[in-house]
Each structure stands twice: as C-alpha cells, then as structure tokens.
C-alpha cells in the first residue's frame, strides 16, 4: 500500500474546516481556544485530536490514498 504525503514544502492548510487525509482517515481542522487542532477518528472510531506537528509526523495528503 502506498502512502502519498504532501511534500515538505507544502504547509498544512489553515482555513477552518479544511480536510486532509492521514493513514487512510480524514482529519478536519477545527479552531479550539485560540489555536487550531485536527480532529478525526482512530482505527476503532474513537475521536482523535492531533496537533499540526503530530499530523506532519504521521504524514498527510489532500487526497485519500487507495
């Protein structure tokens, strides 16, 4: 399975409600108490909140990998 990630030069989106994909799951950017957080679910469907740094470490893409 290939994992397509955005090039290092591409910054994460900053507009609220932006959607990116990481490890086959969508994450939505939500404003939270003056900061931004990426919200999605883990492999069991439980809510998962990631920081921008966490998402960069996991790898991300604008499109879902097949």
Name its key features:
66 residues; mainly beta; four-stranded antiparallel beta sheet
In short:
The protein has 66 residues and is mainly β. It has one helix at residues 52-58; strands at 19-22, 25-32, 35-41, 47-50. Strand 3 and strand 4 form a beta hairpin.
Overall description:
Helices cover 11% and strands 35% of the residues. It is mainly beta and 66 residues long. It has a domain at 19-58. It has a 4-stranded antiparallel sheet with strand order 1-2-3-4.
Write the layout of secondary structure elements.
Layout: E1 19-22, E2 25-32, E3 35-41, E4 47-50, H1 52-58
Antiparallel strand pairs: 1-2, 2-3, 3-4
User: How far apart are the termini?
Assistant: 8 Å
Multimerization status: single chain
- Low-pLDDT stretches are none
Order of helices and strands: EEEEH
Choose one word for the global shape.
globular
Q: How helix-rich are the residues, as a percent range?
A: 10-25%
Mean pLDDT: 87
- Rounded to the nearest angstrom, the radius of gyration is 11 Å
What's the total count of β strands? 4
Total DSSP helices: 1
Major β-sheet strand ordering: 1-2-3-4
Structural class per helix/strand content? mainly beta
Q: In percent terms, what proportion of residues is strand? A: 25-35%
* Main β-sheet description: 4 strands, antiparallel
